[in-house]
Each structure stands twice: as structure tokens, then as C-alpha cells.
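2024-03-11 09:14:02 INFO queue: dequeued item histidine kinase, len=235
2024-03-11 09:14:02 INFO validating residues
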Amino acid sequence: MVTCGELSGCVVSFRDITDLRKKEQELNAQSTVIREIHHRVKNNLQNVAALLRLQMRRSDLEAVKAEFMASINRIISIAMVHDVFTYQTRDSIDLRELSQRILNGLIDSSVLPEHSIETRVEGQHLLLPSLQAVPLALVINELLTNSFKHGIQFLENGLITIEILEAKGQIQLSVSDNGLEPLAPFDTEQQRRLGLQIVDSLVGEQLGGKFRMERIEGMTCVTVCFPKHNLEEQV
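2024-03-11 09:14:37 INFO prediction written
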């Protein structure tokens, strides 16, 4: 305070932030525990995948090996989600980044050296809550596996694209390939494949959405559409 041009006093304000500091420490501790849980789940899934690989090598039948590899890729796709959450504090994941990770992993395990595969991941960077991340990782894995096995398998120069869009609270993810047109209609033989049955179940029951297959300008396209959950709605 100033009186007649001279300092005659002052006002000192104190604020007790002990509770705020305590809550901050509790949140940091909780975040550390959650990341550690994700890390352990990822390691356990990788161990399961490693055991399946050992079992796969004991078989001489290519059909048996293919089924083992399909199961291994499904497990690894889930492990990738937990791996992302291990190194971040937010409980959400970038859908485009996740798609690229799964695509890269499948290329390493599925593409033959003599094949030339062009891949594109396009669209928006959308954050999804962990509640949607795991089922969607499995869906992406199945759609890409379907493209590798039944689309571009016999092509020397294959093309696979992933496109991600959001509009009016709906997320649309499309996986397309330039493989040969399926001999059977999409609603018969295609639907009986285990991979697409898994997609149908996950999209309908866990994501609350729908998917469709169609042939567009020489490309076989599978589109998944589902409502986006707000991050604050996740418990």
C-alpha cells in the first residue's frame, strides 16, 4: 500500500496447494500403474505368439502353418495397441498410426520377397479411446490379411490402400486392393471366411457399426463405418 507517495504496507496472499499436489501425485502414480499393466499385457501376448510360432514350426503342412500364422497376427495386432499405451499418458490412440503399424507388421510376415507391394495410408489422424482400439485393431488386421491372401496374392505388383475419414460423429475406415475380382458374390463365399466373420462380429457387436464389400474401379473395397466414442465418455 502506498500513502502520500510512500510505501506504508503490503498485502501478502497465501494459497494452500497441498491437496492439488497430492492429487497430481496420485494421478501420476495411477498413470504409471496403467502403463505398467499395458506393458505386461503386451509382453504376455508376445509370449503367447512366440509359443504359437514354436508349435507352427513342428508342422509340415502349409495349411496348418497358415492357420497358426493367422492366429499369431491377430494376437500381435492386439499387442500393438498395448505397446502404444505403454509409452504415452493419454488413454487414446491415433487410428492412422495404428493402421500403419499393423500394415507394416503384416508386410513383414506375409509378403513374399519376389512380390512388389505398394501401400498407402491416407486420411485424418483420429484419436480413439482404448475401448474401441482393440476391436478395431483386430478388424484392420483381418481386412489387410484378406487383401494379402485373397486379393493381391498372385500379383507381382499389388496395391493396398487404407483411408480414414470422420463425418458427423461417424468414423469410416476403408481397405482396398487391386486384386482380381472375387469369383463368388460378396454375400456368399466371402462371408463364410473366418476373417470376415470376425469383422462382422466385432464391427456389429463391439463397435456398433456396419461393414460392406464392393468392387469400385478395379479395386475390391471393404468399408467399416461406426460411431466415434468421445474420450470423456470412456470409464
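2024-03-11 09:14:37 INFO annotate: The CA atoms of residues 50 and 161 lie 29 Å apart.
2024-03-11 09:14:38 INFO item closed
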